[in-house]
C-alpha cells in the first residue's frame, strides 16, 4: 500500500483493527478518534474495512445496532505523521436512536468512559447519503452533537461529518446524492462545522473500502493539525458531567428525546395489548407468541428508559453559584483561553 497518498499518516506495516482487551490501556502518545452516528450509518463497517475482510463481524451486516458498548480499537501499524507520531485508535459507540438504548444513557456512558480513559481529539459523525430527507429526530441529534462538541475552532476536539453509503448509490442517482449533500452542508452541517469555515474540509466521504477508511482518517488528522494549536478548552461533553448535566447545552434536548421515546414505547405496548385482545388472536398461537415477545421486549426497554428519566430528574436543576474568586477565574479563562 502506498503511503504517499496519506500525507498525514505513517504506515509501518499491514494495517488492521485490533479490539483492545478489557483493562488494556492506551499508550501514552495516542490519537483517539470517536465515531458517532445513527444505527446503521456505517461506524462499525468503517472499522471492519481496515482488516480487509468481514471475518471480525464488527458490523453484523444489518441495520440493527451491533455495538452495545463503547469499544476501542487500535489501528495497528498506523500513526500520525511525524513529528507527533501518535498511535491511532478508533472508538466505536452504540448507534444513536438505537431501539434498546436511550441517547441520554449513551451520552452519560460516554462521559464516564472519557473520565476513566481519555478525551478524543477527533469526533466523526456518520450520516447516510442515501437518506433522502432529514427527519425530525435526525435534526435533533445534529443539534445535540453540536451541544456535545461546542463551538467549532474553540475546544480541544475537532469534529467532522462522514457521509456513508456512497458505494450503494447507482450511477444514475449520483447527481441527486450530490444535491442532497450540498443541501445538508448548507442547511445542517454548518451548524456543527461552523459558519466561518469551509464546510467541504469538514465533510468527508466513506466508500466502504479500506483505502477510503484510511483517507478519512488522514483527512481528519490533517484538519485537526491545522486547528489543533488553538483548540485548548475542554468541550461541553467533558465539562458538563454528573450534577452539571441539566445545565449543559445538550442535557435538555436529550431529556426531550427521552420523553418522546418513553411515550412511543407506551403507545406501542398499548397497541400490542389491543392486538392481543382482538378476537381470533388467541386462536393463532404463533401470532400470540410473537406479540407477547414484542410486548415483553418493549416493557423491558421502557423500564430502562424510565430509570434514565428518574436519574436525570434527580440531578440538581440549579447548582450553587460559584464564589467570587471562581467567577473571576472562569471569566478570565473564557475570555483569554
UniProtKB/TrEMBL annotation:
Keyword rRNA processing: no
Domain of life: Eukaryota
Stretches assigned to coiled coil: 255-282
Signal peptide start-end: none
Domain G: 33-124
Keyword Transport: no
Keywords attached to this entry: Coiled coil
InterPro entries: GTP-bd, P-loop_NTPase
GO function terms (MF aspect): GTP binding
Protein name: G domain-containing protein
Organism: Panaeolus cyanescens
